[in-house]
Structures are given as structure tokens and as C-alpha cells.
Design a protein that fits this description.
Blueprint lengths: L3 E3 L6 E3 L1 E4 L7 H5 L6 H14 L3 E3 L8 H9 L8 E6 L14 H15 L4 E6 L8 H13 L3 E7 L3 H14 L4 E7 L11 H8 L2 E5 L35 H18 L3 H9 L5 E6 L4 H8 L8 H11 L7 H4 L15
Parallel strand pairs: 3-4, 3-10, 4-5, 5-6, 6-7, 7-8, 8-9, 9-10
Antiparallel strand pairs: 1-2
Helix pairs in contact: 2-3, 2-10, 3-4, 5-6, 8-9, 8-11
Length: about 350
């Protein structure tokens, strides 16, 4: 049975796995590297997810310039009441000077367009895809609060914010009594743990849930890569669609060695172990899995229904630890009053 968790400080529960639909459509040079699922394959993936209890589907207006939303909307026709929808805006959609950012103008126009493409009159989670430093936070948050009041959006989230971006936004929402961000959709994985340095402590303090994107780091943790096995042709990373910075080769393959050992102990795949590790982390409400095809989706769905042991989690923690930048390495020296967030209960 699928586990559901509260999303941040809200009373809203989401499944611990959700499906990212950036692979739907595959329009343009960039998104075609992620996947090219047509309506038939997208519908089968939705079917598989619902059968497994994965009821949250994540998309964005910028994914294939709206095509992902259109395909998802068609794939869920007649069953909107059985699932949860999340979409995003902020990135540029056209050459129109106002078709970008988090202004009131762009947010309201983007929501209306997303609702049309999805074939629904509301979305469950609406996310600012990135921070817009050229728009006053008050303008953005008031527009979002109006959308919540109008019933077009149920809950608000942000994505790819810095700590000060999120904290300033939460403070403004609290000051005026507006709807606040209850979740942060963030890049986080065994090879990208920077989220733990500042954003996770902030999320714990402010009760902001984490929706993890790219949990397998663009395929790096898919289980395909070994010291003796070069990156195969056709992968998202090789074609330029991967996420995250480059990794030191020795460090990466040492981590893969530990993942292989834990996978052998558990009888699970490397990808399933990497996903399950994330589900043990504080603040994590849902991990957004992606899939280029049904086989990959079925594999990722096997990440739930079991748990790594405390010893296995500790081994993975140690193998994936990387040197921190300032001021985080200095704060580690005052562990008595600045404990590592993962040591605290979820």
C-alpha cells in the first residue's frame, strides 16, 4: 500500500512517490532528450501509477511548451477526482515581454493557460518554478493568494529557491496573512546533498515539505554506470539533458560501489536503493520519479514498500558525504547546537 505524508505544515497528504511528466511530448531539442511519450504511452503510465497508489502527477507549463500539460490532461480525462495535479510557471514561454517571471500578469495568465491545457478548473499544487528577483515578493504572493481564494489553486509551492528567497517569502505571507508556500520542489539525491546544508534546516523550522526532483540525478544513479562501464549512448546526461554539476570520478564510483553492496543486501536495484534513501530523509514528502517508458516506471515503483536499515542508511550517508562550502563547514564545528538535520526526526 502506498504511504501518504503530510505536505509541510498543511493538512494535505501526498503519496511518497509522484510521477514527473517532463517526458510527455518531448517537444523541442531540450525536452526530447528527456523522453518522447505520446498520449498512448502516457495514458498507460497514468494507469500504472494509479494502480500502484501514485496519485500525484507533476508537470510544468514550460515542459515542451505546454505539450506535457496537454498530454497529461488528455490522459486523465474522466478521472480527475482520483488524482492530484501539480504544475509550475515562471520560465519564459514566448517572446512576449510579459510571458516570463512571477508578476501578477504572468502568474494569472499562466494559471489560466495551464488549466485549459490540463482540462481542469483547479490544480492541487501550484509552484513558482524559480525565483524572480525583478518582481516584488509582495506582488507574487498576493497574486498567488488571490488564486487560492478563487479556488483555482489549492496549495502553493516554490522550486529552486535560495534560503533567503524562501524565508523572505514566508515572512511576507505571514505578515499579511496570505497563503504560504507549504512545499519546496528541490534538486536532491545521493550525489547532490547541498539541499541539506541550509534549505532542509529552514524547511524543518518553517514546516515546508520537500518534493524531490531528479532523485536519480539525471540517470547517474540509475545503476547503468560503473568504473568499467562507460555511459551508454542515448542517456539524458550524455545528450545534454542531465542535471547537477560534474562529479569527481573516484568519489562517484566509490559511492556506486557502496550502492551495489547495499543493493545486493536488499535484493533491490541501485535505483530503488537510491530512491528509498531519499524517503528516509527529514522533510521529504514525495519523491518525483520520471520514466522514459513503462519499464523504467515499473522499476522506480519498486522503491516503496520496504525500508533500508539504519546501518545501510549510515553507509550511504558516509559514502555520499562531500566537503561543504562556507559557512556550512564552520557550522559543523558547533555540532552541539547545530546538529545535522538528518539526525532529527521527520
Amino acid at each position: 500500500m502506498m504511504e501518504y505524508r503530510l505536505l509541510g505544515g498543511s493538512g494535505f497528504r501526498v503519496p511518497v512517490l509522484s510521477l514527473g511528466t517532463a517526458t510527455f511530448g518531448g517537444g523541442g531539442d531540450f525536452f526530447s532528450k528527456w523522453g518522447t511519450s505520446d498520449l498512448a504511452e502516457a495514458t498507460r503510465m497514468v494507469d500504472l501509477c494509479l494502480d500502484a497508489g501514485v496519485t500525484l502527477f507533476d508537470t510544468a507549463d514550460v515542459y515542451s511548451t505546454g505539450l506535457s500539460e496537454e498530454i497529461l490532461g488528455q490522459a486523465i480525462q474522466g478521472r480527475r477526482d482520483r488524482l492530484l495535479l501539480s504544475t509550475k510557471s515562471t520560465f519564459r514561454m514566448s517572446d512576449d515581454p510579459n510571458d516570463v517571471g512571477s508578476s501578477r500578469f504572468h502568474i494569472i495568465r499562466s494559471v489560466e493557460a495551464s488549466l485549459r491545457r490540463l482540462g481542469t478548473d483547479y490544480v492541487d499544487i501550484y509552484t513558482m518554478h524559480s525565483f524572480d528577483a525583478k518582481t516584488q515578493v509582495e506582488e507574487t504572493l498576493r497574486a498567488l493568494d488571490d488564486l487560492v481564494s478563487a479556488g483555482k489553486v489549492r496549495y502553493l509551492a516554490c522550486s529552486n529557491f535560495s534560503g533567503w528567497h524562501l524565508m523572505k517569502s514566508l515572512a511576507v505571507s505571514d505578515r499579511y496573512g496570505w497563503s504560504r508556500y507549504v512545499a519546496h520542489q528541490a534538486y536532491y539525491s545521493l550525489v547532490g546533498r547541498e539541499y541539506e546544508w541550509e534549505l532542509m534546516p529552514l524547511a524543518l523550522d518553517q514546516k515546508v515539505g520537500t518534493l524531490v526532483w531528479s532523485p536519480l540525478a539525471g540517470g547517474r544513479l540509475s545503476g547503468k554506470f560503473r568504473r568499467t562501464n562507460p555511459m551508454p549512448d542515448g542517456t539524458r546526461i550524455q545528450q545534454g539533458g542531465g542535471e547537477g554539476p560534474s562529479l569527481p570520478a573516484d568519489w562517484f564510483y566509490n559511492l556506486i560501489d557502496v550502492l551495489d553492496a547495499v543493493a545486493a543486501q536488499t535484493g533491490k536495484s541501485v535505483a530503488q536503493v537510491a530512491l528509498n534513501w531519499l524517503l528516509q530523509r527529514p522533510t521529504v514528502a514525495s519523491v518525483i520519479i520520471g520514466a522514459r517508458n513503462e519499464e523504467q516506471l515499473q522499476q522506480n515503483l519498486g522503491a516503496v514498500g520496504w525500508n533500508l536499515s539504519a546501518e545501510q542508511v549510515a553507509r550511504l550517508d558516509a559514502a555520499s558525504e562531500r566537503e561543504k562550502t562556507y559557512p556550512y563547514w564552520h557550522q559543523n564545528g558547533f555540532h552541539e547546537r547545530n546538529p545535522f538535520p538528518a539526525a532529527q526526526p521527520r
